[in-house]
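Consider today's protein:

***
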Amino acid sequence: MRYNSCTSKKYKKKEIVRVDDVLIKNVSISNIDNVLWNSIEKLYRVNKDFVRLSDKLESDIGPDDF
């Protein structure tokens, strides 16, 4: 059986791409987790601020204001 250099090079390229894909997936998953966590924290803070503002507005508004 003859050794074909072209097929071995293609195989090596596929292996390299495969390893890169796995690394990119691992990195992107951790980055997505961080982004999601940060956005959830920001939404929680914004919701707390809205609750605080609505509490203040409710106490300031009386029946005579309408």
Helices lie at 5-60.
